[in-house]
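I'm stuck. Protein, please.
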Amino acid sequence: MDHSTPIVIIGAGLGGLAAAIQLKQAGYHNLRILEKDGKVGGTWAQNTYPGCSCDVPVVLYQYSFAPAIHWTNTYPSSAELQAYCEQLVAQFDLGPLLSLATEAISAIWQADSHAWTITTKQGETLQAGAIISALGQLNRPAIPALPGQDIFAGASMHSAAWDHTVDLAGKKVGVIGSAASAVQLIPEVAQVAGKLVVFQRSANYIGPRGDREIPASEVALLMSNPAAAMDIGARNRALVFDTADTFFWQAFSWTPEGRAAYGEVARRHLESQIADPDLRAKLTPDYPVGCKRFLFTDTYYPALTLPHVTLETARIEQLTANGITVTGGVHHDLDVIIYATGFETTGWHWSLDVVGDHGQRLADQWADGPEAYLGITTAHFPNFFMLYGPHTNLGHNSITYMMERQIDYIKAVLDGMAARQVDVATVTEDAQARFLLGLQDRLSATVWADPACNSWYKNDQGKITQNWGGNCRDYADAVRDVVWSDYTLEQGNKSA
């Protein structure tokens, strides 16, 4: 392994682009980025529903090595975030490394040549000494199987695959779901629909968002002294980060103070925006605060009070040709159904078929739930690294920080391999098992482990597979140094 070794990055969202930037700056010059879509941006290129935006302040949701000033809101839209990705490509000259509309469908480890053979849907075959998968966690839309879906005569779509040809003006619209994407799109749909029914399975803890438009005059003022603006921005970012990592984290680490404080934030926000006691009762969660993603919006609750909007909390029984019937026999006539039902997370069914050492398939190894050492690499899959992999999701802070730390770690492994003159690094089963044992011990002290908590962070067996068990500083400590005794190293056909 050296700086000329071919490295393939799969995915050109924020993670894949950051990996390419950091590796390029570290001197790795044989890089290629494969992206299945026709443009960069990942989730921000794919999610274009009305109201789609960042749900953490943008001061946190940008890279420390590429801060930006030209934001129009403190919580920018998906279009702005996709443009930020385009800016990264231009700023760091990633264009020559990019292969757009190129979907990797298989990656097979060749033990004799110590390389990965990658095949694309377009028929190309290429070799790589290492792979960085930047496919992430939230990219496979989940649509619940409901009786009658095949007979509904109207238009239907998932929020992550928005059909912009469907005109919602004056239509009878049903939105299934009430979580992160739903609370963004429902206020927008309510402005144009003739009738809107929101089908809620469970209520959410919601706090005030406090989004603020940043006028052009303010941006121009910042640009009058960009160096000072960047310095102040960095200090502001550190303050917001530290506040979230110290105090917001306590809602999830389940300190009495954290539970009480953020439960009170949500209660006060609900009471300030919803006067009707019956509607307020429907919007009050029946599970511990922090169990599911804590949402921030100032427009969702007011949308539910509009005269043409109905919150339906009865269970969906079936779809009909012209709507949805719920428990109790109530039928809602609908022209359009929108599934704001999130993403498939428990199975980790990547479109990429990964085959490691001795023919071990990643899909088989993860059949009972994904497992990865530090959330970055996994036993039996040499020189295979992941960004935003299993066990790295957060409830309290920004994933961009986590991905920067993961990229630092991957660089350290690659650099260490070069220094040791080895071709292959594979984490051992024992090291992975020890890491996972410690992680589950950490997670057992969080709200996600509570029996009353049922969320997408758990797999079908109730095991927490998505989330990291600490705050961001804890993760930075965990990945700061490479523990080489946790790896099997090989050079040529010999173990090092």
